[in-house]
Batch of 2 targets.
Target 1
Amino acid sequence: MRTLTSLLALSLATGCIIENDVGRTPGDDGPVVVPAPAPAPAPAPAPGPRPGGSNPPAPTCADDALEPNDTTPVAALGSFDLTLSDGDVDRFAVTLFPGERLTAEAWFANSEGNVDLYILDEAGEILAASYTDDDGELVDLVNDTGDVLALTVEANLWEPTASTCVGYGLELVITDTAEPPPPPPPPPAPVCVDDTSEPNGDWGTAVELQPILDGTTAYDFVSSDDDWFYTAAVPGEILEIAVYHDAPGELLSVQAWDGQGALANATATYGTAVVVYAEGGVMGDTIDLLVAPTAPDTCAPYTVEVTSLLPVCEDDLYEPNDVASVYADAPVALTLYDGDVDRFAVDLYPGEELFVDALFDSSWGDVDLALLDAYGAELASSTTSTDDESMVWFNDSPFVQELTIEVALWGADSTTCQDVTLDWVVYGAACWDDGLEGDDTPVGAWELVPQPGTSVIFDLVADDDDWFWLETLGGEAVDVYIEHGTYGAELDLTAYDALGTVDYAYAGYAFDEVGVQLPVTPYGDVYDLEIRPLAGPGTCLPYTLTVVSW
């Protein structure tokens, strides 16, 4: 017996009893008796071709391409040309899943050196081994544990010398030992018993199929003769009629007619449905259906499914805007249906007025309008029961209002489909006071109270001087910014303390934010801020004032 340690060689030579787990079976705690080795055999002739046409590779006594794998196994499967010499061990890491078989095969010339193969578990215990004196070794292992096994395949030399150099081939293969599942049993032969709809063998005895509105109804029949049916589509409704069977080798003829003529003439084969679409139109319609065998002695159980497809409104170009509003250029063409809500975002600056119109024909559905603020509160609405809706709202606050125009159907059902043209217009602000007026001089200045680490934003209108004041805390830094969106307009921002001007900023371009920085003092200070339109009295200039505390 050979093991993985060179120390075992001495015991083998003397026939000693060795305490080792090699070769034991589970539960065998006794020693393993290793007989003294037989006399060395005569040198073997040079190996001939190996079955399959593979010969051992010529040894080079140089490291092969997978080195170093003496200590850390290399993860690889397949066929390899390798070299072993004195002190060299080749190790390969293999993961074996439950039900898989690992086969390791080595071929070499025993006259050059004897290669042994082992399969070890994670703890280094030998699970399988092959160590004959032939020109090849073969070892395999089936994972029947139910667990995933992390294995090491090891190839080493038996009793090498310093000059031993063996070229050998190695093949590692994993196969699945699980047996394929048995084929499914053949389907039972149909029992040709007339269905409960009989007799319906002609047009005069046709059986009515009653589809569920906005749903599907299924019927099971047996075809051994002609089967006639009829069903009705309500105005605006589309019916989908599907006929299919599961009788191998049988063919069923499917024909359908509405009030205008033939709708379908097709054959239902095994596993393939014939589908017919019928429209109710403006006044509704009746559909006749004939299912018949194409050959004598046919016995084919089959199913008829009737699905009601009520008109479906296609989403307009602005969906999805049922929850979150979208920005768009007015006017917009919309389609509304039951459960659909269209929302559009509009920003209204101080002094601006919004006009909204919804144009539609109320005979197809009643449309309502609502205007919501940023928190969802209703600011305006129009909910008449006539054609068209209109609403107007004026922003008399000093802030930009983020508004939502909401368009929805009133009293709609699943058949409602309404086209709407929505238009809105914003008229610019007349030069009106922004709500903080009385601040035209330092005496009437408006107090700004920023909290440390926060920003305060005001939307204002400058038609004359605007004055503000604020008090900083000890060590607090405060920045003040202005920005306007009027091309060609100019604004000045000046900051003062008790001794005079401390900073100045000039907003000469639209959408160009400029600002001043107030001095940081140990005890804080009081500052006045002056915002002045350079065009003088009569200027109407909406602007934004931002105060940032650090």
Note: The first strand starts at residue 17 and ends at 18.
Target 2
Amino acid sequence: MPKYTDINVYAPCPCGSGKKYKFCCLTKDREIKRQKKYQPFTSLENKLKLLPDDVLVMDLNLAENLNLASEKLLAKGKINEALVKLEEAKLKAPLLPTTHNNIANCKYLLGNLEEAISIAEFVIENLDHDNVYTLGNLVHFYLIAGKESLANSHADKLLSLELRDISWLYKKCEAFARLKRHEDVITSIENYTEPLDYIPCHFLAGVAYANANKFDKAITHLEKLKKHHHQYPMAHGCLKKIKKGTGPATLHGDWPYFGTHELISQRLSEKMRESFESLNENPKSVNNFGKKHPIMSEMALIIFNESEGRSSEAVDMLGKVNIPKSNDMLIKITEGKFGSDECRFSACRNLIRNGVWKKETPRKIWANEQWREVILKDYEITREAGIEIEDKNYDIYAQGVEALKNKRWKTAEKTNRKLIVKQPEFAAGYNNLAVALLNQGRSKEASDYLKKAIEVDPSYLFAPSTLVQIYITEDRIDDAEELLKTIVIPEQVHPDAMVCYLSTQVQLYLYKKDFDMAVKILDQALMIAPDNPELKQMSNKFFLLQRMKKIL
């Protein structure tokens, strides 16, 4: 007697009749089960070790009902309860691929990616080589694990497989969509001969046609989605852009199929985010982060495309992933016009930090609505970056600083003159002397001492920043801009020095009436020193200015 181990009820019956198993020997097998006591097996492996003359009897009805019950529990988010039902279904019909597929989905939803992959691979290798649903799952799982070549090879198998029903069509198209194989999505949709009555298929078809620049067909499919469909917001957004002819407004210029919640499960996302956030505490683990979580580059890309408010977070994420794919995205951000100026500069800094680009190499970057040639250096803002004062001169330096704070300009001048005699290579002494002179109306002398400070230490930011401010008050804007270009930011910079440098740029852009650029740089300064009273006052003025513009 043949062993009825093939539990795909729509496959040809093992008896050789040419009929589907469901419409041939399925009823007879169930009758055999009723006549023979069912032997419970504790594992699938034991079931597969049956003697050749044994008949493996399966309660397909019960197993299918348990699968349906598990799907209802999954819809409510009750994953562990669903797993209980599925383990029972596996005992009743151990070779039913549907059960194993659902178990793999549960493991994936719980964040156990390797286990999900193992189960899906078992189905393909041992139960059903041509199971579209399993192959679709493996494409998704392999992409998350960074195994893109394996994902593509499994997607290739899908090209020639027959579809059991429209749910398999969706799974097939979904796999191609994850790989951005737009033409394969279109071919699968166009070759399907049954009515296309599953709305998610229309969404994938619409996006695929949009990516193929077949916008009439894209509109036809996308308009099928109504407000109660979960993909409606994305479909509606695509439709608006297509009809306006504005394009997708994404980094790569493609129309997206998925949001972040469809890219990976919530549990996996949480695990990866915990790992990502831990990098701040353990920076040495950055090098391995991208290799362990390559899907984070896709997640960062979706965030960058979807939310302007989170674009800086996305760029930071791409920088820490630090794999060829994420660095390519950073290059595209830096060299293009998509996104904010801040994001372009941040992407450039990340490329320098990752060793992709060299420091101090001129780069053309789109900033303030025009192409600019800029030189960026990687630097760290830290309070550990201090001035190098000799111990024997520290008391004199402290007295000079105290005099400046209390606006005792004469005392500050006298004290700092003593200091530069005792330590002539100390840039802060010349700068503080210049500040004392400047507040006595002696700007010419102040400028000379500031130039001396710059000569002694070009990386001491206070001196050139103060000199730029003098040039602005004297309407010497060309000199101010030229001096700003020569400023060298050290690898470690004190936050107060960085704020002084940024504030100087704000003043320059205000003089030039470039309020947008001034606001952007002020925001950077506020990120460094949110409690700085001068920055707060400046920010309030900008706020009032914006209010006045709206009123006018």
Note: The longest helix spans residues 533-551.
